Amino acid sequence: MTQSTLRTIWMAAALLIFVFIFNMHSGTQNSDFALVIKLPIEFKASDKITRVGYALHGLRMIGLLFWTIPFLAWVHAKGESGPAASAFPFRLLDIQPGSKSGFVVQTIAFLLLIVAPFVSAVHFWQIVGDEGKVCQPNPAIACEGVWSRPVQPGGFWDHTYRLTDGTTNRGPSYEPVVEPILVLALLAVALGFVILLLREMYRAQKRSVPISETS
């Protein structure tokens, strides 16, 4: 895979995840503003989806897919040499990443496409943790916290549990023990790739410095 193809794939994936997360933010804030983009598979917003539901969907997207963004950026950076900004795969028009204006563009892109999802994960996690309740179809069974497992009527993962805001027992399917651990583990993986990316960007810049300048 060429560096150009890798950049194209990375930018498309990063922007799509950013759009999805932005719309989940709008949902948690009950905002009418959203970024509209047509995809083969789309998330259908609904008045029946609670603030907790939007936060859960956003957290799932970040946890399950976001780690691929810093991973692909790290792979791209490994094959680059030159200014650190050039090792980051974002490209805008014909702006040279190593120029002053390119450095500004790359910094903004890094904040929006790498840092913002982590901030969003904290935001969604706070909503799920503070407002989320794990309920079952039977309203007579009391709802409990996101880490607890209520009475287990079936198998280990039987899609019986629902995450709601506590006002109803209807909400997205949720696994109280597995989902939080899985999300946190994948976020840790994503953070690890971000650290590798930053290190590779630093090395790319060091590789571009002539030996005479470093001696």
* Share of residues in strands: under 5%
Mean of residue pLDDT values:
81
Shape: elongated
- Return residue spans where pLDDT drops below 50 for at least 5 consecutive residues: 211-215
| Proportion in helices | 55-70%
Most strands sheet:
2 strands, antiparallel
Side by side, the strands of the main sheet go 1-2
Give the beta-strand count.
2
* Helix and strand run: HHHHHEEHH
Tell me about this structure.
By secondary structure, the protein is an all-alpha fold. The chain contains 7 helices and 2 strands. It has a two-stranded antiparallel ribbon with strand order 1-2. Helix 1 packs antiparallel against helix 3. The radius of gyration is 21 Å and the shape is elongated. The two termini are 35 Å apart. Residues 211-215 have low confidence and may be disordered.
